[in-house]
Structure prediction request, 214 residues.
Amino acid sequence: MSFGDPNNPYGQQPPQGQPGQQAPQGVPPQYGYPQQPPQGAAPQYGYPQQTPPPYGAYPPPGMHAPGMPGTGMPPLAHWGLRVGAALLDGLIIAGPMYALIGLGAAVASDESTEAIAGILSLIGMLYSLGMLFFQLYREGTTGQTIGKKIVGISLHREADGATLGFGMAFVRKLAHILDSIPCYIGYLWPLWDEKKQTFADKVCGTVVVKANNG
Prediction:
């Protein structure tokens, strides 16, 4: 009767691996149960997660378009909201100026009252100019003029979602000349544009999105 290896006095057989499995060459065989993931670690399933595109950038195939659910970009502001904000800002900037000019014209009847009318008109124009630059400062630093804040929209750089700064907000204001030249069609362009941009937005690389004002 054979009791196994004569060099093994106890007759025990060496441990065997699982049938049909061999350890790679140069790697010692592994025994026992398979290793479990660390406690608390969630199991991994499916394909690796995709990194979302930069703010406002066109996504790769299979990802959502800008301003759609599933991206980090807020929804794009529609044309009606932009028009409402522009009308409010125009009223805030120009309304008091025209009111003071009209008041001066109403009281002007002789040389003394004409001087008062001139002073009122000057005050109105200085107010309008100061409010214009104040609005540009707000838009550049916070993304919102007073009108934009009221209607709940905000202006940002398309590339990364940052605010423009006063200088670039001023340049964008000048770029609106491009919207006016071809029969004001640039102001209507957001009605059918994919990213709802005017010509000034495209030149300056900006988008107007819906804002959460809390």
